[in-house]
Amino acid sequence: MTSPPIRVLSVASEAVPWVKTGGLADVAGALPAALAPHGVAATTLIPGYRDVLARLGKRPRTAHKWADLFGGPARLLARDAMLVLDAPHLFDRPGRPYGDDAGHDWPDNWRRFAAFARAAADVAGGAAKGLRFDLLHAHDWQAGLAPAYLRFAPVAGSKPVPAVMTIHNMAFQGYFPAEVFPQLGLPRQAWAMDGVEYHGGVGLLKAGLESAQAITTVSPTYAREIRQPEFGMGLDGLIRARGQAVHGIVNGIDGAEWNPETDPAIAARYTAATLPDRSANRAALAAEFGLEAGDGPLFIVVSRLTWQKGMDVLLEALDHLVWLGGRLALLGSGDAALEAGFHAAAARHPGRIGVRIGYDEALSHRMQAGGDAILVPSRFEPCGLTQLYGLRYGCVPVVARTGGLADTVIDANVAALAIGAATGVQFDGVHPAALKAALDRTLALWRCPEDWQALQRAGMAQDFSWARSGAAYAALYRQLVA
Ligand SMILES: Nc1ncnc2c1ncn2[C@@H]1O[C@H](COP(=O)(O)OP(=O)(O)O[C@H]2O[C@H](CO)[C@@H](O)[C@H](O)[C@H]2O)[C@@H](O)[C@H]1O
């Protein structure tokens, strides 16, 4: 007899295809399908931002109502395996999920995401008729209070529901002043070192990390790195103390959406056996970015333009990249100074550097299909998805040896090349000299077409589908509900 599926409420502030600002959305969106083959029925709860509600269509079912959820009425809307928290006073506004169009965080973010977490804990605890869950899985600081509500203020009479807290990025912790604590609806004992108190204020991610039965992050190397102050960013002591409960599970990618054999966004479809067909994509990409023809590699970057991603270091290596005969197509948005820096580099190197500031999903597919190598010089990278897309598309990753980049790319050292295992180039220490040296190594590989194609083929043969990671999450859930 097969056992009934484990029912998981996955709680995230963004999930594809509904709302995305970064990699969290890819993962939260992919999890339910990744878990289904492993006996887990996952339902995703996201906030009802204006765009989400607009796309939800006319008649979603109302599964629960709150007369007053942190200052206004709210409804739980259900559509298939999706739940949306419709709370107009918190989420129905123009702008982005976490701030206005000018990039300022919403001043009431603590209230928005406390309410979201409270609602999640209510739903996991059985408050909504007909919806039952065995476990709550919270993602990042926006969902961080949900495990704390389950621990300190569960639905009256409900059976205990275990929680998993996943860190997608330790740099974002949801820290707010102590004054908000009395408004969270938590009992006084939650204001403690092993509760929500954090450096004299309230830490939303911290609260989740203290309260969840298990902690995961998105690669084994990052799980080790966050035990150190440099990567733990104030929470390294907590991570060390809870070491036994911390697990590193690498993200998968959606192999249906990211498949060069079937991708509707690209000009020429191809497989590892038909690599020469890629050249049409390459030519189209160069044309799209106004780049001249050349025999050097066409590098791409698809990234948030931030310090985390090492984009300031890349700026300092661009003259060298061009001097080597390379070209660069960059798509991204973020810090104004970095955006200006890339515009200036493009002006300095017309025909060699092309820059597109903005967010464009279809273009990101065309770039992976047409680029020769993708640059990911991150200072820290919990997992990273763009290098995985690069591997799948034969766009060779050139990455810093950190976090998930260290775990997913096999450096083209002599031994790895000799056995055909190498899939990319790694470098240590994110500073201009190290990146320039990595570019030199990349060029040496590029000049030997046999080596280069071996890198591409080995990368395309890697399996970063969700199969393994889905099984790992399912095994963890099973332990916790047992
Ligand atoms: N301008 C643009 N146009 C189109 N698409 C763009 C884009 N800029 C970025 N993207 C896309 O957004 C996603 C970014 O995901 P990443 O994993 O690389 O980083 P992020 O730091 O957002 O995620 C955090 O969470 C994820 C998920 O766990 C971790 O992998 C990661 O290390 C961690 O920092 C990718 O799908 C990428 O293609």
UniProtKB/TrEMBL annotation:
GO molecular function: alpha-1,4-glucan glucosyltransferase (ADP-glucose donor) activity; alpha-1,4-glucan glucosyltransferase (UDP-glucose donor) activity
Pathway(s) annotated for this protein in UniProt: Glycan biosynthesis; glycogen biosynthesis
Enzyme kind, highest EC tier: transferase
UniProt keyword Glycosyltransferase present: yes
CDD domains, A to Z: GT5_Glycogen_synthase_DULL1-like
Reaction catalysed by this enzyme: [(1->4)-alpha-D-glucosyl](n) + ADP-alpha-D-glucose = [(1->4)-alpha-D-glucosyl](n+1) + ADP + H(+)
Domain of life assignment: Bacteria
Single GO cellular component term: cytosol
Coiled-coil segments on the chain, per record: none
Residues that coordinate or bind ADP-alpha-D-glucose: K20
Residue ranges of every copy of the Starch synthase catalytic domain listed in the record: 7-240
Annotated ranges, domain Glycosyl transferase family: 292-449
Role of this protein: Synthesizes alpha-1,4-glucan chains using ADP-glucose.
PANTHER family linked: ALPHA AMYLASE DOMAIN-CONTAINING PROTEIN (PTHR45825:SF11), GRANULE-BOUND STARCH SYNTHASE 1, CHLOROPLASTIC/AMYLOPLASTIC (PTHR45825)
Protein name in the entry: Glycogen synthase
Source species of the chain: Novosphingobium aerophilum
